[in-house]
Amino acid sequence: MLKIPQVGFNSMLKKGAQSFSGLEEAVLRNINACIELTELTRTSLGPFGMNKIIINQIEKLFVTKDASTIVKELSVEHPAARIIVLASQQQDREIGDATNFVIIFAGELLKQALSLFQLGLHPNDVITGFNDACEKALTSLGDLECYRLKNFKDVDEVAKCLKTSIGSKQYGYEDFLARLVARACVDVCPASHQRFNVDNIRVTKIPGGSILDSSIVNGMVLQRAVEGTITHVEDAVVAVYSCPVDISRTETKGTVLIRTGKELENFSNNEEAALEQIIREISLSGINVVVTGSQIGDMALHFCEKYCIMVVRVQSKFDLRRLSNAIGATPLARLGAPMAEEVGRCDSIKLTEIGDENVVLFSQNKSTVVSTIILRGATSNILDDTERAIDSAVNTYKQLSRDARMIPGAAASELELARMVNQYGTSILGLSQYAVKSFAKAFEVIPTTLAHNAGKNSSELLSKMHAVHSSGSVWDGLDVNDDGVSLCNAKDVGILDLLIAKHYAIRLATEAATTILSIDQIIMARKSGGPKPRDNPNWDED
Amino acid sequence: MAISLLNPKAEVARAAQALAVNISAAKGIQDVMKSNLGPKGTVKMLVSGAGDIKITKDGNVLLHEMQIQHPTASLIARASTAQDDMTGDGTTSTVLVIGELLKQADILISEGLHPRVVTEGFDKARAKTLEVLESIKIPIEITKENLLEVCRTSLRTKLHQGLADVLTDICVDAVLAIKPKDKPADLHMVELMEMQHKTATDTALIKGLVLDHGSRHPDMPKRLKNCYILTCNVSMEYEKSEVNSGFFYKTAEEREKMVQAEREFIEQRVKKVVALKKKLCDGTDKTFVVINQKGIDPMSLDLLAKEGIMALRRAKRRNMERLALACGGVALNHLDDIQESQLGYAGVVYEHVLGENKYTFVEECKVPQSVTILMKGPNKHTLTQIKDAVRDGLRAINNAIEDKALIPGAGAFEVTAHKQLMAYKDSVKGKSRLGIGAYAEALLIIPKVLATNSGFDAQVCNEFESLLPERKVIPRVRKSRSPFPCVCSNIVLKLWFMNPL
To answer: Which of A251, A260, A279 to mutate to test the interface with B (most CBs of B within 10 A)?
Structure first.
């Protein structure tokens, strides 16, 4: 029943709604929540970052230090913290790497903003300052370029560029994995490297062995057995069907009209003969392997065996498409002998056993369009986490094909950015100067955190780095391997970050931080129960 | 009380108590919206029951999303919605003026004046304000510069400046592109398409159409130039007959024939398209694109792909109309004797893949009368923010085109109206002049709040007023003419006073 309402804003809203407003209640609360979140992921930054165990709402276990996975599985509810999570997810989508940087940097910006508010600055001043400084940082980023990938077909050169990305997630295996991924990327990279497709590098995870047992197949790997008894074909000529390999059917319901036993017998014979006819035609056109994306009837299988055709079923529509891509076949929508240009070719197709899994390897001797990394590891958690590291590396290659510039890693570029922005800050008039300088200060969170995670003294590192950088060696970063605090030239050691990744990360983090700062009121409706409305993005699938 | 005899559970608030409830609601809602007014207003974050985030400072969006239950407050919200329906702008102002009118009325009523008299004064003042509005308006030519100004003013109150300026150009170009000569523009012909990608300032105007799906066949071309566009609403997939039917056969051959006969029907249609393509394109550098509202099944897609035709199925209905406007040609409902004249043209058609989503761009049309604003942003809430703003921007431009007149913004109108009302008040006899005075005061809320939000002293408008006779207040920014705040607020006021009395 509707009551005569009370005075006050909250009474105007629906029952259960909450509202927070003003600097104290909304802005500071938001900032604190976001800082909590960043504290969480901070310990996972860099080669010595710690892993986290996360058990998500469906009780799935994750052991990882990949920030985008951590925040995704945490299902963060606080609205302001969600904005940071969204920013890091967008980074994951655009670049596929440097997600932790977004979270940590956005959190640090907010922390800096907090002290600016205590100084008495208005949020608007802080926002303008941050935006200014962000523009400055993005333009100075270009000056930091220290390396450019030139030959996209050179495994060694590519491996060098991918090493850092893997090293921050699977430290210790980075040389091995970087080479593995580099080989896979180079193999499938088309002549014009801009058209490199991430989807063409597949990862098949098979438990057992160790990461060092992982290998590459030039082609596809299907994790299932073949249908018939023929398990090995060299120089295969393949027909791919997206329809079932069976007797044809009408779309409208069909009824067989039979009056006598003779007719019944005739019908069966007839049917067999028709099917055999089709399979024979297929066989005559030189096909020795049939791949179907749907079922295969018992009778059809029998005839395939009879004509020595190997039969493979692929259940996923996407895998079918990839496979046809890898062997150069056109999936046929109707059963029948394919035309010459619709046929796919593969140098070797065979069923083998890796670990205790049956896999079908489709491998090509020379060039290939799809490459598969067979990943081995002791537990499924290790496999999952390594797969994420490989994904980052593959994405790095993809981004390199768009923008081949690299900047020094090991916190060298962050420190240099901090110096540049700070210098710019001193030149501005007005209150936003404070904000610009704070923005510069926020960059220092990266060297600090790296040192912290590696168990080193961060203040000592900062002072050392500042001193070295101001004397001109701007590529010097933290050396994590050495005892004590020492520096190394990031370029010489081969710690390289993607310029474009940092570009997006800085922009997204700043955007998230300024969005949070510009909010002066939060109004939350009561949580509605029941399942979410069904969202079906694939409404047009077959 | 009588009502409790009729319904013992009813609650009653009367006279002074009712008024207090109403006025407190108006003040409450005014307080909330106050900080959003103007280019320097702050934004609010709304979290829906499902946890979705919305960040906005658009008055109308706020009122809708806040789920207000208070009856009086929702009445005000409705007035504001009406304002949005009519003009698409000025919603926050409406709420502020209503709140302030009630605040001023409260002062008078507490001094013992009957609400009826206040209303009378308000009515008179409203009539006068509308007169002032007529006298102050600046007739304009519809030129791009003028429209840019209107749109910029509207958008800067909703988004931050950098983004607003990008969108201003886009909105004005969009409206100018779709507006037929001598006829009002249909804003639905501007398609708004979202793409979660890059940053908000990458939003762009596409002189053509963007569809949010791609071709469904891996072998179809992804990019075509110099294309004929066939838009049709013809099913190219097998459909069951409406009556219950079945096939009867005895042998496998018979069944095979039936299977073929079934396909035959659809194939005929596809072949017509293929034949037309062959006739028009073979031997030239032209290409062919089919955009179908109904389905196309895999086998038909196969046939089309073999001919190098790009085919899109299950296009949205509204896009069929837009396609005809953007590319020319006619949306066909059957494929019997199709001719070249029924086809549209586009310079380039290509597919863009973004994660799992596909988009098809139909661009470089000859004289597009339907365009697409492709909104980009790194996350969903930015996209909705842009979408709401773009809608309002388009409406503002359209209003200016239809009205052919502007009034100065930045609080200039309100200050002028205040001054003239005060003069008018002296010419009126009786108690209602108190109401006029209150109305005049209430209008000042707009410049006051604008000043406060920008970090100035609220009393700045007094200085403005002293400058007015010499006309030194040159409006810095202009605003589209929106006489509705006054009208709406007054209707609401009347409703209001009826209630408690």
So the answer is: A251
Say if residues A372 and A157 touch (Cβ distance below 8 Å).
Answer: no
If phi > 0 it is left, if psi is from -120 to 50 it is alpha, else beta; for residue B455 that is left
pLDDT digits (tens, 9 = 90+) for A219-278: 888 888 888 888 888 888 888 888 888 877 777 777 777 888 888 888 888 888 888 888
Please give the ipTM for the structure prediction. Answer: 0.73
Average pLDDT over residues B356-364: 85
Which run of H or E residues covers position B360? strand B357-363
Q: Which residues of B touch A511 (CB under 8 A)?
A: 199, 378
What is the C-alpha to C-alpha distance for residues B172 and A125, in angstroms, rounded to an integer?
Answer: 31
Q: Which of A430, A507, A423 has the alpha carbon at shortest distance from A128?
A: A430
Distance CA B383, CA B40 (A): 21
Cβ-based neighbour number of residue A380 at 10 Å:
12
Task: Write the DSSP assignment of A84-95 as a string of letters.
Answer: HHHHHHHHHHHT
DSSP codes of every residue in B52-96: -EEEE--HHHHHHHTTB--HHHHHHHHHHHHHHHHHS--HHHHHH
Q: A477-487: buried (b, 16+ CB within 10 Å) or exposed (e) per residue?
A: bbbbeeeebeb
| Nearest-by-Cβ selection for A90 from B28, B256, B378 | B378
Contact between A70 and A41 under an 8 Å Cβ cutoff? The reply is yes
Residue A122 makes CB contacts below 8 A (sequence gap 6+) with: A431, B455
Q: Which residues of A touch B216 (CB under 8 A)?
A: 540, 542
| Strand ranges across the sheet with A357-363 | A219-222, A357-363, A344-354, A232-241, A289-292, A310-313
Q: Contact B150/B480 with Cβ under 8 angstroms?
A: yes
Among all chains, which residue has been given the structure tokens 């994995």?
A177
Distance CA B286, CA A334 (A): 30
pTM recorded for the entire structure: 0.79
Rounded CA-CA distance A525/B501 in Å is: 34
Residue A329 near residue A239, CB atoms below 8 Å:
yes
Q: Which two tokens stand for residue B270?
A: 């596809």
Length of chain A: 542
**Are the beta carbons of A405 and A145 closer than 8 angstroms?**
yes
Report, in this order, helix, strand and coil percent for chain B, each rounded to 5. Answer: 55, 15, 30
**Contact call for residues A518 and A127 (beta carbons, < 8 A):** yes
Please check whether residue B14 touches A, CB under 8 A: no
Distance CA A291, CA A342 (A): 13
How does pLDDT run across A6-48, given as a tens digit for each residue?
555 666 666 667 777 776 777 787 888 888 888 888 888 877 8
Residue of A4, A14, A508 lying closest to B67 (CB–CB) = A14
Nearest CA among A352, A356, A246, A230 for reference residue A296: A246
On whether the CB atoms of residues B171 and B390 are closer than 8 A, the answer is yes
Unique residue bearing structure tokens 């009034």: B407
> In angstroms, what separates the C-alpha of B452 from chain A's closest C-alpha?
13
Residues of B in contact with A252 (CB under 8 A): 240-241, 245-247, 262
Confidence of residue B498 (pLDDT cuts 50, 70, 90): very low
Dihedral Cα A297, A302, A304, A305, nearest 10 deg: 140
For residues B351 and B215, the answer to whether their CB atoms sit within 8 Å is yes
Residues of A in contact with B11 (CB under 8 A): 3-4
Nearest Cβ partner of A90 from B45, B313, B379? B379
Q: How far is A59 from chain B (nearest CA, A)?
A: 21
Q: In the numeric block, which tokens belong to residue A367?
A: 């060039």
Is pLDDT of A209 > 70?
yes
Cα B267 to Cα B269: distance, rounded to the nearest angstrom: 5
Q: Measured between alpha carbons, how far is B410 from B407 in angstroms, rounded to an integer?
A: 10
SS (H, E, C) A322-387: HHHHHHCCCCECCCCCCCHHHCEEEEEEEEEEECCEEEEEEECCCCCCCEEEEEEECCHHHHHHHH
- Overall residue count recorded for chain B in this entry: 501
